[in-house]
Amino acid sequence: MCSGSFAKCLGITLIPLSLACVLCNILLFFPGGTSVDSENITDEVWYFGGILGSGVLMIFPALVFLGLKNNDCCGCCGNESCGRRFAMLSSLLFAAVGVLGGGYSVIVSVLAINYGPRCLVVIEGTEQWGTPFLDGSYLSNTSLWSECLKPDGVVSWHLSLFSVLLVMGVIQVALCAVQVVNGLLGALCGDCCRCNEQHHRHDHTHDHRHH
Question: Minimal CB count within 10 Å: which of 3, 44, 65, 178?
């Protein structure tokens, strides 16, 4: 497969993943599907792992990957212009940005899953907002979920959305890492498929003129 075409496939895949991550992060601002005061929202939600890391920072490499196939020059077939090689090489920088963005989202998600949600609990006989699962024990003991009185279903909401962010962040990191390899190959040898097509058209034109 041509390096430019493969990069375009990666870009097409990254865009919906980024939009889904942004949506998940937005939904986390409404724990249990309800509106609460900003100080009662889980701290990790404010780190914007899905909006910033897997969202905004991932859009840039996705757009760059989409545009790689549209470059009109090839450095491996004797062309004077080395634009395609440079484009593939520059994509490494954006792929690195994608790895950092996706990695940030993964770290935030892991911390959020381990610490659990912020919710209304009973402490010393009084109801107050807190984070009762900082030791991560709620992951192996679902009976503890009942300690969260409000919002309804906040634990499953928190766990489900951050788990989705975690999985999609890992996928994004993997795709950007693949583009690092693809970009190196494209920078070293150019887009050979594109070159072969140009060479084929050149031979066909030459044969046509000869006849």
Answer: 178
